[in-house]
Amino acid sequence: MIPRTINLLLAFLLISIAGIPLITAVHEQTINVVDELPMDMEEMENITFTKLQISPSYSNMELKPGESDDITVKVTNKDNITVSLDPIIVEDPYSEYFIDEDWIDITPSSIELEPEAEIEFTIRVEIPEDAECGYYSIQIAFTDDLMPVSYEMIHKEYINSMHLHIEVWNPPVLLIHPSYIHDRVESGKEYDYEVNLKNTGDVDIEIEPEFVDNRWYRYDMMMPAFTDDAITIDAPLVVPANGTATVNIHLSVPENAKGMYDGEIDLNFDDPCVDEWDRMINLYFEVWTQPTDPFIKPFTAKTDAPITIEISSNRYQYDMCGGGSNTDEEPSFDLTLKGPSGDYVELNLTMTGYYGSVSLGGTGCTVPWEMDSSGIYDEYRISYIERYNTNGAAGEWELGILPHYVEEFEYTIDIEDTD
Q1: Tens of pLDDT along 396-411?
Q2: Alpha-carbon distance 71 to 48, whole Å?
Q3: How far apart are CA 85 and CA 108, in angstroms?
Q4: Do residues 281 and 181 make contact, with C-beta atoms less than 8 angstroms apart?
């Protein structure tokens, strides 16, 4: 979701470039931006303002409905005169939501500050129980000095002010795992995935999963490997209060499909503190085809020393939760080796091995609310290794490697030193 502030700024920029008179509404008041300049450069150079040092000049808060918090702002008078400080709340027209001034209490409410003196203001923020979740932005102006500009401004920008940004939030009531499914699939095959839901609230939550077309933000313009029609969704109508439910996703990859599929399923549930992106199940599928021709690697042996060849594959488990193909088949390799005579030589398999990386962070595919002691293990990388050797000979060689069920592989060719 693009923030409202950016949307407004982009709109203002595009309209000004096009030369169209800009008329915008802020707080239900119409403001006309005209071509006349409010002041010329000479006037700007001669302007005077109260010099205050305000720390912090920006502050952020995260509060839930019903919560409150305080921040302390230190104001130092850097001017050579006594200054009257009378802080006011100035609403930001670019804020996602407009704040109620009753939520903010500033202490002291006013004060006379002598030169080089400092005062600490306490700003207390109290969020009511019925506040909407979202982003609130305000200025707190300590004097009425305005920012000098040579153009018409949509709202007043105060010089001696601080900016306060408040995020009102609540944890989601409906938990989703996994919310991202990534898999490598073959054309003509079928796959099943599960998305687990948990309702942590005391009220049933209705869901209505459907595909959404958000491809406008993607950078590539390639045709997808298949359309949404290849995917079917089987889901309950309700996730019961303090209960769980499962969304079943079935993928039937069309024959001869190639490329990638990137899509989203919107669960369409009502939670005012969850934006639309957090309701999504993101799907990303890579369609692969088993190669029939081997990878060919020519190399040169300068001696008749024995040759050792090692092949290894890596498979990463990131985002591979929910089922699918990630553990269907074991990787393997078909190797051929052509010697300097042009004939194929015999390769002797001397070792097969497995290598893995395991995290104890419990961040893998185990459903969090069903996790027990065994669920803390997350094997996020698996490697399979094969090692071969053969008698060597000086000259030109050619190694052929045909991988099976492998995303990527590495090879090592060692020609032993006989010295």
Answers
A1: 999 999 999 888 899 9
A2: 30
A3: 9
A4: yes
pLDDT category, 151, cuts 50, 70, 90? low
Max Cα-Cα span within the chain:
99
Where on the phi/psi map is residue 45: left (φ > 0), alpha (ψ -120 to 50), or beta?
A: alpha
Q: Which amino acid is it at 33?
A: V
Instruction: Classify domain 295-415 at the CATH class level.
Output: mainly beta
Residues 262, 218: Cα–Cα separation, whole Å: 9
Closest CA to 174 of 250, 272, 249: 272
The position carrying tokens 């203001």 is 121
Which amino acid is residue 299, in one-letter code?
Answer: F
The residues with which 265 forms a beta bridge, in sequence order, are 211, 281
Cα separations in angstroms, 163 against 60, 144, 154, 273, 297: 9, 15, 17, 24, 62
Answer whether residue 314 shows pLDDT above 60.
Answer: yes
Top-confidence residue, 213 or 16: 213
pTM to 2 decimal places: 0.70
| CB atoms near residue 382 (< 10 Å) | 19
Residue 403 carries which side chain, given as an amino acid letter? P
Class of the CATH domain delimited by 174-288? mainly beta
- DSSP β-ladder status, 118-126 and 68-77: antiparallel
* Chain position carrying tokens 């769980």: 244
DSSP state of 18: H
Q: Given 3.40.630.10, 2.60.40.10, 3.40.720.10, 3.10.180.10, which CATH number is that of 40-168?
A: 2.60.40.10
pLDDT tens digits, one per residue of 223-264:
889 999 999 999 999 999 999 999 999 999 999 999 999 999
CA gyration radius, the chain: 33
